[in-house]
Amino acid sequence: MLKYETEKTLARFLAVGSFVVTTLVVTGSVTDPVNVTKFVPLGAVAFSAFLILSRDKFRVVMGFGKSKIIILICFLLASINALIGSSAPISQSLYGAYGRNNGFLTYLFLLLVLVGSASLSKIASFKKLNFALYASAGINIIYCLWVLSFGDFLGWNNPYGNILGTFGNPNFSGAFLALSSVSLFTFVLDKTRRKEIRYLALLAIAVGIFEVYMSNALQGQILLVAGFGYIGFLLLFYKKRLISYLYLASGLFVATLGILGTQQLGPLSGYLYKTSVTLRGQYWLAAWNMGSSNPLTGVGFDSYGDWYRRSREAKALVSPGVNVTTNTAHNVPLDFFAFGGWPLFLSYLSILALTMISIIRVIRRRKSFDPIFASLSAAWLCYQLQSIISINQLGLAIWGWMLSGALVAYEFTDRRNFSAQDIPRKNSKPRNSDAGIISAGLLGSAGLLVGAFIAWPALNADMKWSSAQISRDLVKFEESLQPSYINPQNSYKYGNSVGVLEQSGLTEKARQYALAAIAFNPDSFEAWKTLYLISGSTNAEKENALRNMKRLDPLNPDVAAR
User: With left for phi above 0 and alpha for psi between -120 and 50, is residue 28 left, alpha or beta?
Assistant: First the structure.
């Protein structure tokens, strides 16, 4: 168990850090206002937790138990194995693909966040995490309400014509609004809270549900039904257990009908069928093929896009279509299978299983409804449901991982220390001294700098590229394409830049950077296609490009016919 001041500081850093990761949006100075901007604070909060725990010489971590430590180490080793075994560009493997940032560093950061939250043991600490979630929800609810009422004041491109929240996508926004509304409902049920605040929370929930509807995000609506259904199960479980089991069985039956409905089968198909959801089946199958053909190492972090064309089934040429591609499986567990094969996939599932076991243990041990636990577990379950049909967006992912650790810690602490009667009571400061040479706050602040420094190159490169585009200065534009530690490149940047140079009549420069894109990532279909199409490439280069296009997209009839 951490000393009082150390845990208090750790909980504060995790709460504030998760709030910043969720709500931070930067426009004007970057080309990606959401993903790469959240990547930096994610690294900062991860290493702040790591250094705070180092003050105790990681004794709390060592006390997790053998099975938990083995699972976490296996995930880390499997991630390193995927990083080393991948043929993808090292910068892509580390920082992730453009617009995703799901590279090795992201999952290292999330793992450290999980370890940090798993080290908590006091009710006040878990309350801080809940309030961070509520505060993040409040910002998004107010912002989305403003957008619906008066229009968006953020200067970003919105191709969806819909509310984006602080996630840059209505699906992610709808999912978070649903997740947080369900979690906030447990606050309304907490009778130890003042009525005025509970009524205000109820009003926020009503607005949040309305915004989920306005987002047109099917996944958000599904999370609302599932999340409130779970809260209903908990309420019944502690009053009429037999009825709660019947309630659970009926819920699972409805869930089965819902799954069939997304595939245009059964009575719910008219409500749940959506082309974008159904097409995910082909994306999932391609991910399965990637992991199956590379069972020990996978294809590398965030390299799904490079492998999709050669891993898709023939049916995918019809629906979603020959030229419809994606760089993610739209299923987080299957993304892990594609990224790192069986080692990464199984270690990730083990983390989920560990958390699920912790939830079941607390539910069975408790004698009455526990609002704090209900809030944590409901939000976690909603995230996991969303992760099965969507993308690992950093503003959402931090909650899935942090709550995993928090729920494991909650179960462990519940088993050892507090009972149901202790929950409403305020934590008293223990008598043991927390003196040390270096304070937890100072270590946490140092961790912020270390983590931000590690993540900074990705943001710096994007800012430099954005500045070069705005300046219309060829020298600055070319400088933004020179790879270095603080200026990592990506295939999207190369492809976009070659297109700009070609349209500007700088055909030789376009050819130069088209070849640089190939050298950077020879497994990028789009890079070879760009080289094939630009006017400055030689006949020999076009022939070579066509051979590689056939290699990377063997089922494409348009490529085969050339």
Answer: left
How high is the pLDDT of residue 188? 96
Q: How far apart are CA 93 and CA 147, in angstroms?
A: 36
CATH number for the domain that contains residue 552? 1.25.40
Residue 477 is assigned to a structural domain of this protein:
no
346 is written with which tokens?
């199984």
Same-domain pairing of 386 and 503: no
Q: Per DSSP, what are the bridge partners of residue 484?
A: 487
Q: How many domains does the chain have?
A: 2
Residue pLDDT, tens place only, 212-255 = 999 999 899 999 999 999 999 999 999 988 898 898 898 888 87
- Please answer whether residues 448 and 45 qualify as being in contact, where contact means their C-beta atoms are separated by less than 8 angstroms: yes
Assess whether 30 and 132 both reside in one domain. Answer: yes
Q: Are residues 495 and 415 in the same domain?
A: no
Contact 257, 266 (CB under 8 A): yes
The DSSP output letter for 430 is P
For 12, the token pair is 């504060």
Taking residue 302's Cβ as centre, other Cβ atoms within 10 Å add up to: 29
Question: Within a domain: residue 540?
Answer: yes
Above 60 in pLDDT, residue 421?
A: no
Q: What is the biggest distance separating any 2 CA atoms in the chain, rounded to whole angstroms?
A: 79
Q: How many residues does the chain have?
A: 562
Q: How far is CA 547 from CA 156, 517, 544, in A?
A: 39, 17, 5
Residue that terminates a domain, selected from 379, 395, 422: 422
Residues 301, 194 share a domain: yes
Q: Against a cut of 0.85, is the pTM above it? A: yes
In 3-state terms, the chain is what percent helix, strand and coil (to 5)? 70, 0, 30
Q: What one-letter code names the amino acid at 180?
A: S
Instruction: Answer for the pair 383, 179: CB distance below 8 angstroms, yes or no.
Output: yes
- Helical ranges in 156-279 per DSSP H: 170-188, 195-215, 218-237, 241-262, 269-272, 275-278
Among 447, 427, 449, 412, which residue's Cα sits nearest to residue 60? 412
* DSSP 3-state of 491: helix
- Domain extent, residue 506, equals 490-560
- Tokens matching residue 486: 């603080």
Instruction: Specify if 329 maps to a domain.
Output: yes
Same domain (yes/no): 416, 499:
no
DSSP H/E element including 44? helix 35-54
Q: Same domain for 391 and 494?
A: no
Q: Within this chain, do residues 544 and 399 fall inside the same structural domain, yes or no?
A: no
Q: Residue 484: what are its φ and ψ, rounded to 5°? A: -160, 175
What is the number of other CB atoms lying within 10 angstroms of the CB of residue 406? 31
**Residue 74, domain member (yes or no):** yes
- Indicate the DSSP class of residue 320: T
| 422, 443, 458 - which closes a domain | 422
Which band of pLDDT confidence, cut at 50, 70 and 90, is reported for residue 415? confident
CA distances, 554 to each of 34, 162, 232, 557 (Å): 34, 37, 50, 8
Shared domain for 387 and 498, answered yes or no, is no
pLDDT digits (tens, 9 = 90+) for 110-163: 999 999 999 999 999 999 999 999 999 999 999 999 999 999 988 787 878 889
